[in-house]
Design a protein that fits this description.
heterodimer; A: 153 residues; mainly beta; Alpha-Beta Plaits; two-stranded antiparallel sheet; 3 helices; B: 611 residues; FAD/NAD(P)-binding domain; Flavocytochrome C3, Chain A, domain 1; Methane Monooxygenase Hydroxylase, Chain G, domain 1; seven-stranded mixed sheet; 20 strands; 16% strand
Chain lengths: 153, 611
């Protein structure tokens, strides 16, 4: 379902241009509003739909296999940490779903440099950051070279 | 030619690609390299880039060691079995032993992981998979990477790696261009970690109109994970091991949760279970491998393909029973909304409610990647503490080029890492790169201005080609002087489809077809010098095509080299229709010489963990 943009809702803010992983949301030079420049390179990932503050972007299923008359609308609310979906079938049936998206405040992740600097010993070991504590087992498992052999198993 | 600004960026560690692997590499590099300058460069925006851009509903690689659910050895055996005996067990074990710490960190950062209400443990979807509400998986992981990096450069398409002025086999950085400003970027770095994406759109997709973007793997996965190391002279492995996915028709919606958690199952158009029939005949091709549990992914594909060829399609997923349970119905839909929204759209548009209709399945076109049920990628040095001598020549995850590391799709042999394992492999590479920078080469490499100036001219050439050629014609897309990137892409997809085992050839090829395919790829490579780009966006497409073509040539060379059919259901060498353990229980390795454009092929031994 390549995306498209409603003329009367888009204010040309460019959030979709900034987020699109495929670089296909661009600003039209005449209308100063966004549009999908390459629908056949759209993955329907909804990154732009979710990012649009004006709810101006929607999707229309790929013409090759999606009959018209459906819609899948989304509202992603970072402050509530939820995402809400409304699916409308071609025949009018509807389904609604709400899911959590995050359990901690946005921007609350600590930089790795806020943790105590690792020792030279740790640098030499096979342990990665926060191990072995974050593994929740006593020690990082390991193998020895003699456990490997050639041939069929 | 219009004068383009050159921006020089110096870094200790340069991470190319800000997906799961790149974010892991950036985070870990900072943890161990407190004073180092760590730079991550991404062609899109790390907030929503890579294969996890739209989210995930499951984490497919988690041991659960502290609940005694699985041990790393178990995962190695599982991946080995699924890939018909051939995986780098040292690399796979390494990811498996670390991956739980990654997942625990994700949960601490705020990723909602579902819990089993009875046990309090993570909700299992299957033996290896746990279920998540992962709509914001990528933004959460990107936040961790942003906190860790010295600088993140979004919207820069990296086109080439730079080599040291004095040592031919030592990486020195990378070059690329800003897709928005058009500025030329030169990154000079002591170590480079390639964590770019695998390859969609090298084989012709099933949908060729608007729907060509609805490939199973993201359309922005443009094979940079392979082209960058290949051009730098790194050895590649198992590039013939492309993957074909059995998925819901047209939207390629995932089936994992359906099979494992919802307990839905497949049947042919007449309501019959078709798999046992074909598993019986598969014994002639692959022997004992068909009796293993779980049945390898490729062999299950094979049964579906044969059943369709026998005229008993479409194959359907029986969902009507499971979907009567409202909880299971919710899981079924949220599974799509969390990671493949397009499938929900297909079903809504065609009035398919799985409560009432059993939806159709299909097999996708082939993809090349290193992180799913397949293991194409660069040949990398293994972990220092136990890797066999033949798998160890330097720091962990260092390729055969000095100072060049990789993670995720870029590293070959370590199948079934998925999102959590790719992040973990990035962490492994990140720590190793810090060690390398601190111990091995403190001076760092030297970048030659002449080298990057030459690349600068090459990179912007498609804009020149277009500008000049466009004046010859009145209007439209047909020019005798240049090809548009889409033209080149479609030619590539047609060649790969018809000669290298795509959907149009029933995934079948042979030596004469492969040789003819290589001839046509050669001409396509020549024509790439005549690509025309109307603007910077098309310039990005032009360089994505360059990467795809080089990776495709590598895939074709490997497919030619391995004279057996190791993974029926992924592809068939019709001239060598059986699995051949006597000659081919080994890895295939290639090395490309960028000066002569010649490929050198060799075999490398497979080491197994003693059971």
């Amino acid at each position: 379902m390549p995306t498209f943009v409603y003329m009367t809702r888009c204010d040309g803010c460019g959030h979709c241009v900034d987020i699109c992983p495929s670089d296909i949301m661009h600003i039209d030079t005449t209308y100063r509003r966004a549009f999908n420049i390459e629908p056949n390179m759209c993955w329907e990932c909804y990154s732009c739909v979710k990012a649009c503050p004006q709810f101006a972007i929607d999707c229309r299923g790929y013409a090759d296999f999606a009959p018209l008359g459906h819609s899948v609308r989304v509202r992603r609310e970072e402050d509530k940490a939820t995402i809400s979906w409304k699916i409308k079938f071609r025949d009018g049936r509807e389904k609604n779903f709400v899911s959590p998206i995050r359990t901690t405040p946005w921007d609350s992740i600590k930089s790795p440099s806020e943790y105590a600097a690792p020792s030279a010993e740790a640098m030499k070991s096979q342990e990665l950051a926060h191990e072995p504590e974050s593994l929740k087992v006593a020690a990082l498992p390991a193998l020895s070279r003699d456990r490997f052999k050639q041939g069929l198993v | 030619m219009r004068r383009r600004k050159t921006v020089l960026v110096d870094a200790d560690i340069l991470v190319v690609g800000g997906g799961m692997g790149g974010c892991g590499a950036t985070y870990e590099s900072r943890y161990w390299g407190r004073d180092l300058k760590i730079v991550c460069v991404e062609k899109a925006n790390i907030e929503r880039s890579g294969a996890v851009a739209q989210g995930l509903y499951a984490i497919n690689c988690y041991m659960g060691m502290h609940w005694n659910e699985n041990q790393p050895e178990d995962h190695v055996r599982y991946a080995r079995n699924d890939l018909m005996g051939l995986v780098r067990e040292d690399l796979g074990y390494d990811i498996a032993r670390h991956v739980d710490s990654t997942v625990h960190k994700f949960e601490e950062w705020g990723l909602p992981i579902m819990r089993d209400p009875k046990t309090g443990r993570y909700q299992r979807e299957g033996k290896w998979q746990i279920m998540i509400h992962g709509e914001s998986y990528k933004p959460i992981v990107a936040e961790a990477a942003r906190k860790a990096a010295s600088e993140i450069y979004n919207r820069i398409m990296v086109t080439h790696l730079l080599m040291d002025n004095k040592r031919a086999n030592r990486v020195a950085g990378a070059v690329g261009f800003n897709v928005r400003t058009g500025d030329f970027y030169v990154f000079r770095a002591k170590a480079v970690i390639v964590a770019a994406g695998g390859a969609s759109h090298i084989f012709k997709p099933r949908a060729v109109g608007e729907g060509m973007g609805r490939t199973w793997y993201a359309p922005w996965s443009s094979a940079s994970a392979y082209a960058l190391p290949i051009l730098a002279g790194a050895k590649m492995t198992q590039m013939e091991n492309r993957i074909v996915l059995t998925r819901f028709k047209d939207g390629y919606g995932p089936v994992g949760a359906y099979f494992l958690h919802l307990k839905t199952y497949t049947q042919n158009a007449y309501g019959q279970d078709y798999e046992p029939i074909w598993f019986e005949t598969l014994k002639e091709r692959v022997g004992d491998y068909v009796n293993r549990h779980p049945v390898p992914t490729c062999l299950r594909n094979h049964a579906l393909l044969e059943e369709v060829k026998a005229g008993r399609g479409p194959i359907r997923m029986v969902t009507k029973e499971a979907f009567q349970d409202p909880h299971k119905e919710t899981v079924g839909w949220e599974n799509f909304l969390g990671m493949t929204i397009g499938q929900a759209v297909v079903w809504a548009s065609q009035n398919i409610d799985p409560k009432e209709i059993n939806p159709e399945l299909t097999t996708s076109e082939p993809y090349v990647m290193g992180s799913h049920a397949t293991c194409s990628g660069a040949w990398a040095s293994g972990p220092e503490d136990y890797a066999p001598a033949e798998y160890q020549w330097g720091y962990n995850r260092m390729m055969t080029v000095e100072g060049l590391f990789g993670a995720g799709d870029a590293i070959g042999g370590s199948a079934h890492k998925f999102s959590s394992g790719s992040f973990t492999e990035g962490r492994i590479a990140g720590k190793a790169a810090v060690k390398y920078v601190n111990e091995a080469d403190r001076e760092g490499p030297e970048v030659s201005e002449a080298e990057y100036e030459k690349l600068k001219k090459t990179i912007y050439q498609p804009l020149e080609n277009y500008k000049i050629g466009r004046n010859e014609i009145v209007a439209g897309t047909v020019s005798p002087s240049y090809l548009l990137p889409l033209h080149g892409l479609q030619r590539l997809e047609k060649i790969m489809d018809e000669y290298v085992g795509g959907i149009g050839a029933n995934y079948t090829t042979n030596e004469p077809l492969l040789n003819r395919g290589l001839e046509l790829l050669d001409m396509l490579k020549e024509d790439l010098a005549l690509l025309g780009a109307e603007d910077l966006h098309q310039l990005q497409r032009a360089w994505e095509l360059h990467h795809r073509v080089l990776a495709s040539e590598c895939v074709t060379q490997h497919t030619l080299f391995r004279t057996e059919t190791r993974w029926p259901g992924y592809y068939y060498r019709a001239d060598h229709p059986k699995l051949d353990d006597a000659d081919w229980h080994c890895f295939t390795l290639s090395r490309y010489d960028r000066n002569s454009s010649k490929w050198a092929m060799e075999k490398a031994p497979v080491y197994h963990i003693i059971d």
